[in-house]
Amino acid sequence: MQEIDIVMLEESFAEVAAARDDAADLFYERLFVHDPSLRALFASSDMKEQGRKLMAALFLVVSSLRRLEAIVPSLENLATKHVGYGVRDEHYATVGKALIETLALFFAQRFTLEYRRVWTHAYETVATVMKAAANADTVQELQNCSSSS
User: Fold this and answer.
1) For the CA atoms of 66, 72, 75, 76, what is the dihedral angle to 10 degrees?
2) Tell me, what CATH number does 94's domain have?
3) Fewest Cβ atoms closer than 10 Å to its Cβ: which of 15, 40, 55, 78?
4) DSSP of the chain, one letter per residue?
């Protein structure tokens, strides 16, 4: 990722973080509009706390853009936890769509094609790492089940 892209992400996220509760509420609203079945994954969740976790995860990623390799283990661990909650590969596309839509609504006309490009790239990078970890865990789990049979 180029320095100019990182600066764009950092500066735009600073604005989102300043309104983090509203931004998180908007994200989950958009997520559930795109896939109402995902509500079931949050049935026992405190959504305010979930919103804080979302913003903390975004902060971790944005603050680590110059050294993404350092957070790969955290992303892999997060992916493993999400598998346990019922998250599947196809959910990552829905989350990405909800994130980009949230940003577009939040920034309105200021969310240019260039901002869309850098946010989409950043999300896809994170999602790729997480899906790979989730799939590796699933394969390992299947191998463990078949060897214990």
Assistant:
1) 170
2) 1.10.490.10
3) 40
4) --HHHHHHHHHHHHHHHHTHHHHHHHHHHHHHHH-GGGGGGGTT--HHHHHHHHHHHHHHHHHTGGGGGGGHHHHHHHHHHHHHHT--HHHHHHHHHHHHHHHHHHHGGG--HHHHHHHHHHHHHHHHHHHHHHHHHHHHHHHHHHHH-
What is the C-alpha separation between 44 and 41, in angstroms, rounded? 8
Domain tally, the chain: 1
Report the C-alpha gap between 109 and 5 in whole angstroms: 19
**Nearest Cα to 134, choosing from 55, 60, 75?**
75
Span between the terminal Cα atoms of the chain, in Å: 46
Query: If pLDDT is split at 50, 70 and 90, which confidence band does 145 have?
Result: very low
Distance CA 56, CA 42 (A): 18
Interval 98-111: pLDDT, tens:
999 999 999 999 99
Question: What is the model's pTM?
Answer: 0.89
Residue listed under structure tokens 């896809």: 124
Distance CA 123, CA 125 (A): 5
